[in-house]
Amino acid sequence: MDSQEKAPAERKSPEILYCPVCAVEVEDPLTCGDCSAVICRRCGTPLESPDELGMG
To answer: Distance between CA 24 and CA 44 in Å, rounded?
Structure first.
């Protein structure tokens, strides 16, 4: 029986998420068990990626 070695999965860099209420980058977000929304651990606001923010 030939044993095949699986290549290690490539690790993607985590997406930077931003809380508009706390005005900080969130490194440890929560995921809602009901709707799968990614939310701020401090205030519960849905997080946004920097390109979704209306700055500039």
So the answer is: 13
* Tens-digit pLDDT profile for residues 18-49: 999 999 999 999 999 999 999 999 999 999 98
CA gap 29, 47 in Å, rounded: 8
The secondary structure element, H or E, covering residue 26 is strand 24-26
**pLDDT of 13 strictly over 90:** no
- Amino acid type, 43: C
Contacts 24+ apart (CB under 8 A), 38-45: 43/19, 45/19, 45/20, 45/21
One-letter amino acid for residue 2 of the chain: D
